[in-house]
């Protein structure tokens, strides 16, 4: 009988009758981890390999690293979580700059965020959160114009909440590929009536890259800011979020919405996106933001393969130690893969949501709230977590 990780092992140990201390000691041994470390010197790679082998784990390095016939090597580490933690501790005392690697491994293996604080409200991260999309725009790719009317938008917000959304993301500027910039006066005219009408009853995220829009929305009761530019368009967004104690979502985007899909290229899409998000998160923290969420930016300056590679490697983003948002719903990469028009992308969007959650995503930004809530609940029941 296959056991699916430490949580399932702990449940079965309790059923067997193992005492609490035994469960605490033994359950982590059922959690197997595989971690890729890139760009080690040959000497460092040898140290890592020998340390990991001495702990009963495995470390695959380039064959030339052993006799130093190559200058550097990646290392693929494989072992239980306990072995990885012991490796991390041992590396903090090693030469070749490996102490920094040891500290990074501790971060990767450390406890994940358990809650998201949004302007005084707390959202538990013990299960994935569902963020319902509300585009108050005439030109968004999926539902542009459907809720451009204020009364329809307010009605839609209440419907999203009734369907089980944890967060409602209200946006007044389309950021689809090729979209044009919207000035702050028009953006405020679109979003403020909705925020004012429903903020008392819901956790509202304002999807904006402008600090003045963020400020007015937060002052009206919004609790989060979702900035696709990660503070690059208007650095004041971070200070504004910090002032209100709001959560700040920072997304990776190559270029701008107007040009992001014009031949996007990366040498290592996962590594580059991860490094970008790490840098922007540290910047936001330095500006006083306590609740940072990172978003790899599916569809924002990425090809089909870039998007798939990022989704496959969601754990590489969660390893940064911040809650991770995935915004995949109905996007064009689904059409590229399956040839489906936007109105027929529900089933693949649900598949991505469930798989992203399984790989560690904390927030799923979606159009189809009810269906996503149900799919995630079913997946959790099957995993018994």
Would you kindly provide a written description of the structure presented here, covering whatever features stand out?
This protein has about 375 residues and is an alpha/beta fold. It has two domains: about 30-110, Ribosomal Protein S8, Chain: A, domain 1 (2-Layer Sandwich); about 115-385, Dihydropteroate synthase-like (TIM Barrel), CATH 3.20.20.20. It is about 45% helix and about 15% strand. The strands form three sheets. It has an eight-stranded parallel β-sheet with strand order 11-10-9-8-7-6-13-12. The protein has a three-stranded antiparallel β-sheet with strand order 1-3-2. The longest helix has 18 residues, at about 270-285.
Give a brief outline of the structure.
The protein has 385 residues and is of the alpha/beta class.
What descriptors fit this protein?
385 residues; alpha/beta; Ribosomal Protein S8, Chain: A, domain 1; TIM Barrel; eight-stranded parallel β-sheet; 15 helices
Distance between the termini: 18 Å
User: Roughly what is the average pLDDT, rounded to an integer?
Assistant: 91
Count of domains? 2
Name the helix and strand elements from N-terminus to C-terminus, one letter apiece. HHEHEEHHEEEHEHEHEHEHEHHEHHEH
Strand order of the largest sheet: 11-10-9-8-7-6-13-12
Task: Provide the CATH top-level class of the largest domain.
Answer: Alpha Beta
User: Under the CATH scheme, which architecture of the largest domain would be assigned?
Assistant: Alpha-Beta Barrel
For this structure, what is the CATH homologous superfamily of the largest domain?
Dihydropteroate synthase-like
Number of helices: 15
Computed over alpha carbons, the radius of gyration is 22 Å
Helix share bin = 40-55%
CATH fold-level topology of the largest domain: TIM Barrel
Which structural class is indicated by helix and strand composition? alpha/beta
Please describe the biggest sheet, giving its number of strands, its sense, and whether it closes into a barrel: 8 strands, parallel
Report the sheet-strand fraction: 15-25%
Overall 3D geometry? globular
Regions with little confidence, pLDDT below 50 for 5+ residues: none
């Amino acid at each position: 009988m296959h056991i699916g990780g430490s949580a399932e092992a702990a449940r079965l140990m309790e059923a067997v009758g193992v005492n609490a201390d035994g469960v605490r000691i033994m359950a982590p041994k059922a959690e197997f981890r595989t971690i890729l470390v890139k760009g080690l010197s040959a000497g460092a790679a040898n140290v890592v390999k020998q340390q990991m082998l001495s702990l009963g784990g495995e470390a695959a390095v380039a064959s030339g690293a052993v006799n130093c016939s190559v200058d550097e090597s990646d290392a693929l580490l494989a072992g239980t979580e306990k072995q990885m933690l012991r490796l991390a501790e041992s590396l903090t005392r090693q030469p070749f700059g490996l102490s920094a690697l040891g500290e990074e491994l501790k971060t990767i293996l450390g406890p994940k965020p358990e809650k998201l604080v949004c302007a005084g409200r707390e959202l538990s991260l013990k299960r994935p959160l569902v963020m319902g999309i509300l585009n108050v725009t005439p030109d968004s790719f999926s539902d542009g114009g459907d809720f451009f009317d204020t009364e329809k938008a307010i009605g839609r917000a209440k419907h999203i909440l009734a369907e089980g959304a944890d967060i409602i993301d209200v946006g007044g500027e389309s950021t689809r590929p090729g979209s044009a910039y919207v000035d702050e006066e028009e953006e405020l005219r679109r979003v403020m009536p909705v925020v004012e009408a429903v903020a008392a009853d819901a956790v509202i995220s304002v999807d904006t890259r402008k600090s003045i829009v963020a400020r007015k929305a937060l002052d009206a009761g919004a609790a989060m800011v979702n900035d696709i530019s990660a503070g690059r368009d208007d650095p004041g967004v971070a200070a504004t979020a910090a002032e209100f104690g709001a959560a700040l979502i920072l997304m990776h985007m190559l270029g701008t919405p107007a040009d992001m899909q014009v031949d996007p290229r990366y040498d290592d899409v996962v590594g580059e996106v991860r490094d970008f998000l790490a840098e922007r998160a540290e910047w936001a923290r330095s500006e006083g933001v306590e609740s940072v969420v990172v978003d790899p930016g599916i569809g924002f300056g990425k090809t089909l393969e870039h998007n798939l590679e990022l989704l496959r490697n969601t754990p590489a983003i969660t390893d940064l130690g911040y809650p991770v948002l995935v915004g995949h719903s109905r996007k064009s990469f689904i059409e590229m893969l399956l040839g489906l028009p936007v109105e027929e992308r529900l089933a693949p969007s649900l598949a991505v949501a469930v798989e992203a959650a399984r790989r560690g995503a904390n927030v799923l930004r979606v159009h189809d709230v009810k269906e996503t809530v149900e799919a995630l609940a079913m997946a959790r029941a099957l995993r018994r977590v």
